[in-house]
Design a protein that fits this description.
single chain; alpha+beta; Glutaredoxin; Glutathione S-transferase Yfyf (Class Pi), Chain A, domain 2; 2 domains; 5-stranded mixed beta sheet; about 10% strand
């Protein structure tokens, strides 16, 4: 399998999941602005929307959205517990969490804040919305350290990947001590630290 990713983008969640599950992948980096892969291919000829992540399966099938990519990877090693089995109602809780993260946090908060063409009013609106979304995440976590149940799942991988962005858009996690401690806890996971280390090395290579 080949994972198309961009350093420290939301596709980091898939990279983390692969390490957590012990799944060997070919990692291909994408320049999401130029829409080219590191080896010079036109990325839009691979993924129609030009977004990461994309996961190319051995039979050529392409998955191109976080919920499908993350669940597929988790299902390759069910024993890792990254997503409950389909017969377990908690699987639908994980899907619920993935959808919330993708719509309310990724698209409504971070996408506008990162968009260069977004007017100041739009960025202010997104940042105001962040308050509601982060408050909701605190309620979702409650007294626990995971979004679903009592173990790390693909939903946590997605949230951890996005919380990394907070300093770059002027969001101070200190306003939400629960989320700050959650982020710190999971950054220490070996698979998370490994994926971040690998992607930061690629980012440094690009900047050199």
């Amino acid at each position: 399998m080949e994972l198309f990713t961009s350093p420290m983008a939301c596709s980091l969640a898939a990279h983390i999941t692969a390490y957590e599950a012990g799944i060997p992948l070919q990692i291909t980096y994408v320049d999401t602005r130029a829409k080219t892969t590191k080896d010079g291919r036109d990325y839009r000829a691979i993924a129609f929307n030009g977004y990461v992540p994309a996961l190319k399966l051995d039979d050529g099938t392409l998955l191109n959205e976080n919920p499908s990519v993350l669940q597929y990877l988790a299902d390759q090693n069910p024993e890792a517990g990254l997503a409950p089995r389909w017969t377990d109602v908690r699987r639908y809780e994980v899907i619920d969490a993935l959808n919330f993260l993708g719509t309310e946090l990724h698209k409504k908060v971070f996408s506008p804040l990162f968009a260069p063409a977004m007017p100041a009013e739009g960025k202010a609106y997104a940042k105001a919305g962040a308050q509601q979304t982060f408050d909701a995440l605190v309620r979702r976590l409650g007294d626990g350290d995971h979004l679903v149940g009592d173990r790390f799942t693909i939903a946590d991988a997605y949230l951890v990947a996005m919380l990394n962005w907070c300093p770059f858009v002027g969001i101070d996690l200190a306003q939400w001590p629960k989320l700050a401690s959650y982020h710190k806890l999971h950054l220490a996971r070996p698979a998370v630290a490994k994926a971040i280390g690998v992607e930061m090395a690629e980012r440094a290579r690009r900047a050199a």
